[in-house]
Structures are given as structure tokens and as C-alpha cells.
Amino acid sequence: MTTRADGRADDELRPITFTRGFTSHPAGSVLVEFGQTRVLCTASVTEGVPPWRRGSGLGWLTAEYAMLPAATHERSRRESVAGRVGGRTHEISRLIGRSLRACIDLAALGENTIALDCDVLQADGGTRTAAITGAYVALADAVTWLGAAGKLSDPQPLSCMIAAVSVGVVDGRVRLDLPYEEDSRAEVDMNVVTTDAGTLVEVQGTGEGATFPRATLEKLLDLAEIGTATLFEAQRAVLDEPYPGELPTE
Amino acid sequence: MTTRADGRADDELRPITFTRGFTSHPAGSVLVEFGQTRVLCTASVTEGVPPWRRGSGLGWLTAEYAMLPAATHERSRRESVAGRVGGRTHEISRLIGRSLRACIDLAALGENTIALDCDVLQADGGTRTAAITGAYVALADAVTWLGAAGKLSDPQPLSCMIAAVSVGVVDGRVRLDLPYEEDSRAEVDMNVVTTDAGTLVEVQGTGEGATFPRATLEKLLDLAEIGTATLFEAQRAVLDEPYPGELPTE
Amino acid sequence: MTTRADGRADDELRPITFTRGFTSHPAGSVLVEFGQTRVLCTASVTEGVPPWRRGSGLGWLTAEYAMLPAATHERSRRESVAGRVGGRTHEISRLIGRSLRACIDLAALGENTIALDCDVLQADGGTRTAAITGAYVALADAVTWLGAAGKLSDPQPLSCMIAAVSVGVVDGRVRLDLPYEEDSRAEVDMNVVTTDAGTLVEVQGTGEGATFPRATLEKLLDLAEIGTATLFEAQRAVLDEPYPGELPTE
Amino acid sequence: MTTRADGRADDELRPITFTRGFTSHPAGSVLVEFGQTRVLCTASVTEGVPPWRRGSGLGWLTAEYAMLPAATHERSRRESVAGRVGGRTHEISRLIGRSLRACIDLAALGENTIALDCDVLQADGGTRTAAITGAYVALADAVTWLGAAGKLSDPQPLSCMIAAVSVGVVDGRVRLDLPYEEDSRAEVDMNVVTTDAGTLVEVQGTGEGATFPRATLEKLLDLAEIGTATLFEAQRAVLDEPYPGELPTE
Amino acid sequence: MTTRADGRADDELRPITFTRGFTSHPAGSVLVEFGQTRVLCTASVTEGVPPWRRGSGLGWLTAEYAMLPAATHERSRRESVAGRVGGRTHEISRLIGRSLRACIDLAALGENTIALDCDVLQADGGTRTAAITGAYVALADAVTWLGAAGKLSDPQPLSCMIAAVSVGVVDGRVRLDLPYEEDSRAEVDMNVVTTDAGTLVEVQGTGEGATFPRATLEKLLDLAEIGTATLFEAQRAVLDEPYPGELPTE
Amino acid sequence: MTTRADGRADDELRPITFTRGFTSHPAGSVLVEFGQTRVLCTASVTEGVPPWRRGSGLGWLTAEYAMLPAATHERSRRESVAGRVGGRTHEISRLIGRSLRACIDLAALGENTIALDCDVLQADGGTRTAAITGAYVALADAVTWLGAAGKLSDPQPLSCMIAAVSVGVVDGRVRLDLPYEEDSRAEVDMNVVTTDAGTLVEVQGTGEGATFPRATLEKLLDLAEIGTATLFEAQRAVLDEPYPGELPTE
User: Record's NCBIfam families (chains A, B, C, D, E, F) (predicted)?
Assistant: First the structure.
């Protein structure tokens, strides 16, 4: 018996789509959609690395997350106009960067930087997990681009795939991939970042106004495994298509 | 004989498209494309007006323009991270706000604010004129929304249509709707904002490293008239379709 | 066989001390020490609540975390001088606030705010978990103060105790309460916030350069349970002593 | 029949004065007055150029515009105290820089920078056009100074003179050089920057609450030509006097 | 025997001039000159007081000090562009405010604020003492203006006059009113703010790289008394002239 | 007859204590207490000097002062969160730096910097003078550390001792070392920084709402001499103990 507002089963993802080559300037550019949540994830390659890393011979990967002002139901204030990046934005940017650095051998890039930008065009819950999942696809495209440009010392610097999903307890039920309507009233909210090798990269679970027993944590992790398995399939399917655009020639 | 890199005649616009209802939260949401230049223009309605306008009974219209970091060929720094909005951004935001305020009777809104957000997803020259042209369509949708919500004291507060186009002198030739490749080496660069009544709202012409005789100004204005005539047709065509989404009921 | 540099067993906490009444202005003021990590946790009561909460009749609890410049081995730049709070600081401040809000009935405070300030005087790993654990004791004192001042509608607004500990994988071994020397080279790093009722408030686990199987997550959670059990005992012991200072009279 | 509050004809400028050597530290220092509008324009020479221009062998010219807090009728907030430069300030600073770069051969300066500072001591409309017109005189003095110091590879790097004037439609009449009283209620407001060779550098026309036909634009440009012709005469007259101060010896 | 570069005796001031009504918008506007040091001091009257003083029935007086970028020998960076007010600027602004609040009965103003702005047009040492001395004259004019406007509950709210002067030890000699050339190499530097009743408002003495015996302090204070006596005469002389401009009628 | 709230004679200091080695990372770390005022003063050694001093062969000494939010009776806002350092903080930081630079031969350090951080844990008046007095002890320890590390070209770069005390007029009586209760209602407030050679480094006296005759200044200086004599004894006594911690070996 289904009880979710959108008719999904508790362990069912929203429709997932990836549009590669959504814009054409960056080496990777993917519009990822988890239902109504839509995030533009780009991977730009720039020469050089941050000052603290210069001379190391190693590359770097950094990430920035942001919301367009009209992405949310009520328009939110533009952070550039406010003159500072908010705490939530900072936190998610750091999470995306850490998560994607887990799958890449930065030594293979030489002293080049990949900048991942995840800009939420429309928010309906799960923006950070959609961002991570879409950023992986953009990163894979950027790696293909770097390889074609002859900038990789190792032809395959990605050691695994990365995907993330939100899980939570809503109305006392453990559920996968929460939309805003569920997320905003969830008792427990958890984001899980995993690899296609079955290992965990990051687990962040929070009781919202409530606390939760460890048994709940286990159920949430089970559900996240189901969800990310489907996401890896979707990533693989879309990455089986050729690079969307023109590749550089060495 | 055509000499433009993209095969256009000197007085020809790039392909223009408007996608209404591109996102669903704001009252108006339009993706406008001038060739490869793509700008998401949203019009959000919020209750209340800025402090200096409170108690006037009048509404307000404000605009903010921004570029996604990967919208340009070389990734640019995110202004929220830099902690300040740059001069160019400020200038264009002000231009968009002034231009659209020229067509609306703010008294009809009561003390409500329409916030126009123009976020450049991909930049290929003419982002500010595309933004104004797209913002008009988003504004028209927001006005429809306000009417359905019973928030308008005058059922048709828009007195005219607004469109804008760039013109310039490139390779010694007067040309319409410059892409980045032409814009970056133009000798004269001009942005013209007009109404469908044939009047001017704003004219901004600049010699770039060169100065220009008044005769050139005249030719540029002639060309801008040709361009905006086509843009008004395109706006009318797309606005003939019904409101893309659900309207509020009073 | 012990292999830790400081001679501890893998499942052993560093020496834990709480000094209540460390300073005398705020309603709660606790110096917490986890070995060489020393954090001053204060709980200040102020009248009123943030604007978005006014008129609700509910109180609020907020938290700010910071490091003194000389708290770390290499002096770090003062964030007030830099003109912005860093991402890590933001993230930890938010974590502390969420964690402590999990144990308090904010309705009982009326429209008053408790501000928790956690300033790290000396850092040697685990500053955020020490801060949460110490902040609970400061909060308990502030609640006592509020009760004496006749400002509580419910005499016992704390529903449970809160403590936090770090766990991680170092040199391939699962360990409790990592000092800097271990933390800086941990393969997996996890912070666990729990209640004395045995439930979880927050779990944040991160692979650092590595990913980890779910079995490791389980072992880390087991260890965190052992650690927080000891922390709750220490909190109870110190809170059995009378309020350190003069209480207001109603 | 005169209808202007200050008794001027529609095509008449306010009294214009330039005081060269108003202060003595910068290489050029000119107090320009357009009636009650008074702007201190200085041109400072500094060694080196911005990072993005280093190694080019070319010089640079930059400009900053600001208002003293008490320059306006109502005291305005100091931008340094606000912590950010406002949009209007940014826009005018950029306009001044562009306008003056149109007359100078930056290659002749070597890697040196001329910084133009235009500080409004008293505002009565037309501050930006007064600033540009005064800045040209300060720039001419700085060029003389640079020549005396032996820092110019080309003895005359200025290819033309630059002056600017505001024109507008007030009470339905096309008028030259608007004071605040007219500017604040103008239907159309235009700033025109020209060279003494009769060419245009920048044209910025805006309908304020109204739009305007192209015929009005033509009349405004005619009037601006009349105004700048007088300004060039005044600049020439004052620059015929010797350099006000001591010149460096090579 | 005179040893000072500008020919003055050790106990001699530079030529002092006050130009009242230097600009016309603010209630008081005085250009003060101490030799080559020139500071524009304005006193603007605004309705209302800062939030923390509302409802007190008392007025307020505040001060802001700033330097134009080209006021110094080497152009200095504009603080609005830097995005923050420097420590020295802050310190002097606070000093000016404190000094002038010493002579005025703020109760007589009702809930109105006098904002003193001291903008250095040209700096040659002693800018803060010139600013205080000039600000007193601007303040006296603003008080006259307030009286004419019928906004004073006490017709004479100024209880004394305020003047300030710098003194120092240069080349082992105790000297009055140091220009930049002396100030920059002074062994001891002192700023003294006094009333015409012979009392002190503020004394700030600093050894610069050296320390100084109390006997030197005494000599410096003697010299400051001589200097301020002359400044009070000059202030009185200029204030004997009528108010420079039109006074409001009640 | 004693009239002070805390039972002290007018010329009596509060109990003074110094705790060396209060924290262990910085080369000098001293908790100084003047009664209830408690300031943590650290001296951190870092390689290199600010850009404007590079290549000079000289070292540098800088200071930063700050208050913890809960140090004052009413919690104050954190300056890092406000995004800017306040005027008072700036002013005191500069005073501490100047005062301590008076006793050290910076040439002896080579191009190394000593950063003094004075963080007020609890404020009860006189925080800046306590900070200076404690910072001297921390500096002396840092110098010992530098000597042991073989980084001093002159084994004793400190030419004198530095101590500071506040004096003031309260209830018409001249008093030493004012606590907050006296400081907040003092008619005259003065901070005096001296050397143990009997000379002055800095004198800052301010009338608070009142002005004061020179005779009062003399009495205040007499009292400050008495106070600093006792402080020098206390500094000497504590510095007679060995360095609190492990010294580097060259």
C-alpha cells in the first residue's frame, strides 16, 4: 500500500535523468534531475593548482554549490548580494568536494584543477545528493576531455563511481529519496555517499527534533544501498554514450 | 556577400527561442536563447516593498543579473565566494531593472514586489540584451499570475512590450546581435532597449578603443530597430500560448 | 598490545575533565578538556528570539564555534580579521546547535535565547565533539539559572543528556577519541552525537582519501557507544555538584 | 523666453571653471565646477600595472568616482563604512575610466599606471560629466609631468581631448547641463562623452519613467555637441597656462 | 636660531585658516588649513538618533574621518574599494567624536544627530588635530543653524570651545604642530585636545621607537597650551563673522 | 577611609597573577589576571615578515586583541560573524603592538614575526592594560624560545620591561586600576604604558563627558607610576621561574 504523496513506494527513487553536454564551454556539463530537483553540474578544467599545492606535481579538485534565487518555493536572497556565503552552502560545497575526491587519483592530473560547480536550478529536496550524483558524470566527461587533450599521466584516474542519495524517516516510515514535502517534516534525515564497489564515502544522519535508534540507522543504510545501486546503473547507461561535444586533439 | 563567421547577414539575428515555464516555482520562468547565449529569466512575486517605499501603496520591480561560473569560456570566479558583486554585474542589474520598469504601472501591483532574476547559463555575447528580452516574457507571465490571484488593481498594468538587442561595428561593418567572437573585437558596441511602440528606453553606445562619428550611431540605431521588430514578433508568438502551469485561483 | 602514541587502548578515551564556573558572567561556563584539547563552552541567556521566531512564544538555542589563533600548532588567521567565517567553522557551529537543540524543549524558555559559545583554547583533535559534550554541561547550568530566575514554564526542559565523541580508522585499527596526531592521518573519521537514552542525534562519517565498508561503520558505532557511555558518567558526576556561582532570585 | 529656474537658456551651460593644482601631491589635480557641482579630479602616477597586464610593456589608466557624505542635500552613507561600493558608484567609475582611455596611447607610458580619482565635494547634478571633463585636464597635467620625468616613449600620447555633458528632457523641453533640480524630474536623461574631433566616445540615454522617440535622441545629441564645444574651449584655455607646480627633472 | 625646515620657531604654528561655508548643503562646512594640511569638515544635521538611543529624548553627535586617495604623497587605496575601514581611520574617527561630544549638551538637540565628516583633501601631518579644530567651527555653525530652525531646547548648547594640536620631539627638540616631514621621524608624538577653559579633553602621547621621560611630557603639554591658545583666537575671529549662507526660518 | 566597592585603597592594584604556559602550542602563553579581568596572552613565532618588510633583514612584532562573546556581562556579538573588526578592537590591537615594539630590537629576530594574541576570557575593566602587561611576559618567553632555537642574532633583544595600568577619576577621587563598575562611570579615564626604566611609552587620557585640569593629569601619572612599579615586580617574580615547557634545541 503506497502512502507517499507522489505515489512512490518507500524504497523507490524519483525519475532520474542526466543530460550530458547541457552547456558547451566546460569540459563536463550535466543537468541532473531527481524528479523536480534539477541541478546543473559542470566540471571546468583550469591550469594550475591552489598556492598551498604548487610544486607538488599533484592536481586538485574543488567544488562549489549554490542555489539560484528562484530555485526554491519562496525566492531566497542571492548570496553574492548578501556579500557572504551561508553556512549551509559552505557545508554542501565541502561535502561535494570531499565526495568526488574519493574517486580520483589527483596525481594523474598533473598541476591542473577540476572545478565542479553545482547550481540548483530548481529545488525539491535532495539537492546535495543529486549534485554529487550529477557531478560524477560531469567529472567523468572532464576526465575524458583531459585524456583527449593528453593531460593525463594515467589514462584512467577514476578508481570507482560515486553516487549519493537521501533517506529518512517520514510519518514513522523509512523512505528513499525525499522530496521537499517529505524532507521538511522528516524525523530523521540522512545523506549517504557510496561507491559502486559497495563502500561508503560519507554518511551524515541527523535527527530533526527527534533522535533515532541505531536500528533505524541500519534500515536507512539498507535503503540507501538500494537507491545508489539504481543510480549507478543510470550513470553507467548515460556514460555509455559518446562524449557530447568535440574533444580536443592533443 | 556574407562575411560573418556564423554565416549570418549583417542585419540578421541569431535564432531566438523562449521556453516558458522552464522552472515551476516562480510566477514567470523563461529560458531565452539568442543563439548559444542562454539566460534563465525568472519573475518572483513577493509581498511587501523595500523600506523606502512602504506606505506608498505602490509596488516595486527589481532585477538581478548574474553569470554561472562555467557560463563563460574560461571559468570565472563566483561572486558570492568573492564576497562582492562586481561592477559589470551591478551595472547590468540596474539596466535590466530600469528597462522593465519602463513598461509597468507599479501602482497596479499594490505593495508587492516583482523580482527579476536573470542568470546566464551560457554566455556567447549579448547576455544583457537577451536577459531584458527574456525578462519581459517572464514579467508578462508574472502579471498573468498576479491577475489570476486577484492582486492587480488594473487588469493590464503593462503599457508596452520591451526588447533589447546589441549592435556594433566589427571589421568596419555595422552588425546586429554580436556573438562573443565579434563582441570581443568590436570597435563600437551599443545596446538598445526599445518598446514595441517604436520608442527608446535606453541607448548605451561605447567606442572600444576607438571613437565613432554620429553617422555610425544612426546606422546602429537603424539596425537595432530591425532587430527589435523581430524580437517583438517572437515575444508575441510565444505569449500567445496559454500560461505554462497552474494559475492561482483568487 | 597497545600501539597508540599516548599509550591508550584503542577503545579508551583521553582523560576527561569539566570545570564548571570557569568564567562568571554567562549563566553556564564550562572548560572541557579531552586530553590536550581544551574548549571553553559558555551558555548565555538573552531576552528575545531571532526575527523569524518572534511572536511564536518559543525560545531558541544557537551555537558558535571558533578557534583562538594560537590554539593550533601553527598559528591560524583570526576570522574576524579575515572578515569572514570559514566553511569548517560554519559547519561545526551548525552541528553544535542542532545537537543541543535535540535535548531541550524550547517552548519552556518563552521567547528567550540561549547562545552557546564554544571557543577552542587549545586544539589536539576532537574539538567539535569536546565542544558538544562541554556545551551540554554549560546548557544544564544555564537551565538551572533560568529556573532560579523563574523564566521556565516547565521546570525540567531537558529531555536527555547529549555527548559526542570522535572515532576513526588509524593504521588500519578502529580507535576511539582521536588526538591530532591520529586524526590527521586517519583513513576514516567519524563524529557521533548520542543521547544517554542510547539513541543517535547525529552521525557524520567520512572516508579521508579512502572509502570504507559498512562493517567498519558498525565497529565505529560500537566504539562510539562505549565512549559516550563514559562521557555521560563524567557529565553526571560533575553536574551532581551544586551550581558554581550565585543563582538569581526570582 | 527663459523658463529655467536658474535663468539659463535651454542650450546654455552653467558657469564652468577649472582650478589646476588644487592640491599638490598628485601629478594632476583639478577642481572642476559646473555651477554648484564641484568635483576634485586627481591623476596620480604609480609605478607598475595590474597583474593581468604585467609584462605587456603597456601602461594602464584606471578611475574611481566617489561622493563625500555631505556632498548631497541629505547626507549619504559613507561607502567605506558600508563596506561596499554601490552600483551607481561602480558604474560611474567604469564610465570615467573607459572615457579617458579613449584618448591616450597606453603604450607610451611603459608599465606605469595613471589613477584618476574623482571625488565629488558638492553635488548639484551632472557629477559624472563634470568628473570626466575635469579628469581630462588632470590627465593632461599628469602627462606633462610624465614627460618631464622622462617616462614617456611618445612625447604626446594624448590623441584628442575628452569632454562630457548631460542633456535631458525636462518639462517637455530639451535642455543642456541639468542641475539636480531638473535632473531629478527629467523625463529623459542622457550623458554624452565626445572628443574634440567631433566623434562620440560614449552615449548613455535613459527614459526615466517615460520612453522617448528617436527624434528626441537627435535633438539631445545636437545639444550635447553645442555643450561640449564650449567645454573644449574652456579646457584649452586653462591648459594654455603653464603646469601649476614644480615639474620633475629627468 | 631656527632649525625647522620650514623656517618656523619650535613653538610656532603653521599658518592657520578657516573657510566657512566651503560647501553649501550641510549646516556647517569648513575648510581648515594647517599649512599644507587641508581638511574639509562638515556638520550635517539629520533627524533621529541611533537605535540604542531612541526614546531617550537626547541627541547624538558622531564623526567620521577619511583621506582622499590622492591626499598623501603616494596614492593610498580607497577604503570603500578595500571593503573595510582601516584601524587608523577608525581610531581617529572615534577620537574626533569623543572630543567634540565634550563641548555639547546633547539633551538640547532633542532626538537629532549631528554627523561630523572630516575628509582630508591634502595631508601634511597633523590631520587629526586639524580635523578636530575645524570640526569645532563646523559644529558651531550647525548649532547656529539648529537654533534658527527652532530645534534647540537650550539656545546655547556649547559649553566651551575645542581645539587640538600635535606636539612632538624631533631631532631632540620639543616642537609644535609637526608637518609630515617632522612627524614621520619624530621620537615622541603627542596629540592634545583642549578646551578654551584651559582643561584637557584628550591626551595621546606615544614614543615612536623610543620612550620618553615624564619631564618631556610636561614640556610637550606646555607647548600644546601655547598652540591651542592661538587656535582658539583664530576660531573666535572666524566665528565672529555672520553665518555663511542662508539660515532656516523656524 | 576606604570608599571603593571592592575594599581597595585608591592607590591599590587588584590581585595580579600570571600563569605561564597556560597553553602549550605557542612559544609564549600567559594567562594574566587583574582581579576578575582575565586575558590569555600568547606569543607565536612564525617565519617571514609582512610583504612591506621583506628583504630588510628585520623581524616584526604584531598584536591582535579580541574579546570572547561571553567575556562581558551582556554577551557581545562575535566580530568574525559580524564580518568586521570594530573600532575599539582595532584601536587596542594597535596600542598593544606599539607598546611591545618599544622594548624589542627587531633586528635581532632576523626575518621572523612574533604575533601577540590577547584574547579576553573575562572582562572586568582594564582589559587593554592587563593585555599589555601579560603580553610582555609572553613575549619574554617567546624570546627565550627563539634564543634556544638559535634564531637570535643578539642573545638579549629586550631592552626593558613593559607594563601598563589604568587610572581614572571616579566619584571625584583619583584611583588606580579601575574595575568595570568604576570604569563605566569614571569622569576621566587614562591608560599609561611604561618601562621599568621609568620612562613612558604611551599615555592616553580621556575626559568622559567631562574635561580635566592638568593638575589631575599629574596626579593620575603619579598613581600610574605606583601601579606599574608593583606590576614590574610581579613580572620579574614570575619570570624568575624557568621556561614553562620544553625548549627547542638548536
Answer: RNasePH (TIGR01966)
Q: At which residue does the C-alpha cell 535651454 appear?
A: D10
Instruction: Tell me: pLDDT of D209 over 80.
Output: no
Q: For strands B162-170 and B173-176, give the pairing.
A: antiparallel
Cβ proximity of A134 and A35 under 8 Å? no
Counting runs of H as helices and runs of E as strands, what totals does chain B give? 5, 9
Q: In what order do the strands lie in the sheet with C60-67?
A: C16-20, C28-34, C37-47, C112-122, C60-67
- Structural contact between residues F136 and F100, judged by C-beta atoms closer than 8 angstroms: yes
Residue from the list B90, B102, B210 with its beta carbon closest to the beta carbon of D207:
B102
Please report, in angstroms and rounded to a whole number, the separation of the first and last CA atoms in chain C. 57
Dihedral of CA atoms F133, F135, F138, F140 in degrees, nearest 10, equals -70
Query: Contact D154/D185 with Cβ under 8 angstroms?
Result: no
- What distance in Å separates the CA atoms of residue A211 and residue A224, rounded to the nearest whole number? 19
Residue D2: predicted pLDDT: 58
Q: What gap in Å lies between CA D85 and CA D23, rounded to an integer?
A: 25
Instruction: Identify whether the C-beta of residue C244 lies closer than 8 Å to the C-beta of residue A229.
Output: no
Does B204 sit within 8 Å of D203, measured CB to CB?
A: yes
Max CA separation in chain F (angstroms): 60
pLDDT value at residue B2: 58
Residue C1: what pLDDT? Answer: 52
Q: Residue F2: what pLDDT?
A: 58
Of A5, A1, A9, the residue nearest A185 (C-alpha)? A5
Task: Give the DSSP H or E segment for B43.
Answer: strand B37-47
Distance of CA E164 to the CA centre of its chain: 6
Q: DSSP of C65-76, one letter per residue?
A: EEE-GGGSSS--
* Domain segments of chain B as ranges: 16-240
CB contacts of E195 in chain F (<8 Å) are: 211
Chains that touch B (3 or more CB pairs under 8 A): A, D
Which of these, C204, C187, C200, C39, lies nearest to C125 by C-alpha position?
Answer: C39
Please compute the mean of the pLDDT values over residues E91-120 and round it to a whole number. Answer: 96
Between B160, B190, B211, which is nearest D201 by CB? Answer: B211
Q: Sign of dihedral through CA atoms B121, B127, B133, B139? A: positive
Q: Which pTM was predicted?
A: 0.91
Q: What is the C-alpha to C-alpha distance for residues A92 and A118, in angstroms, rounded to an integer? A: 10
- What lies within 8 Å, CB to CB, of C199 at 6+ separation is A207, A211, A212, A213, A214
pLDDT tens, position by position, A39-84: 999 999 999 999 999 999 999 999 999 999 999 999 999 998 888 8
Q: Which of A70, A123, B248, A15 is nearest to A6 (CA)?
A: A15
List helix spans (H) across chain A: 79-82, 87-101, 127-148, 180-183, 214-239
Q: Do A211 and C204 touch (CB under 8 A)?
A: no
Model pLDDT, residue D1: 52
Q: pLDDT by residue (tens digit) across D103-149? A: 999 999 999 999 999 999 999 999 999 999 999 999 999 999 999 99
Reply yes or no on whether the pLDDT at C98 is more than 90. Answer: yes
Do A203 and A192 contact (CB within 8 A), yes or no?
A: yes
pLDDT in tens, B202-250: 999 999 878 999 999 999 999 999 999 999 999 999 999 999 999 998 7
Computed over every residue of chain D, the mean pLDDT equals: 95
**Which residues lie across from B122 on neighbouring strands?**
B38
**What pLDDT score was predicted for residue E85?**
87
CATH entry 3.40.50.2000 includes domain C16-240: no
Instruction: Give me the count of residues in chain F.
Output: 250
pLDDT, tens digit, for every residue of C52-88? Answer: 999 999 999 999 999 999 999 999 999 988 888 888 9
Do the Cβ atoms of A133 and A32 come closer than 8 Å?
Answer: yes
All three cell numbers of B141, joined, read 507571465
Structure confidence at residue E83 (pLDDT):
83
Say whether F205 and E206 touch across the interface (CB within 8 A). Answer: no
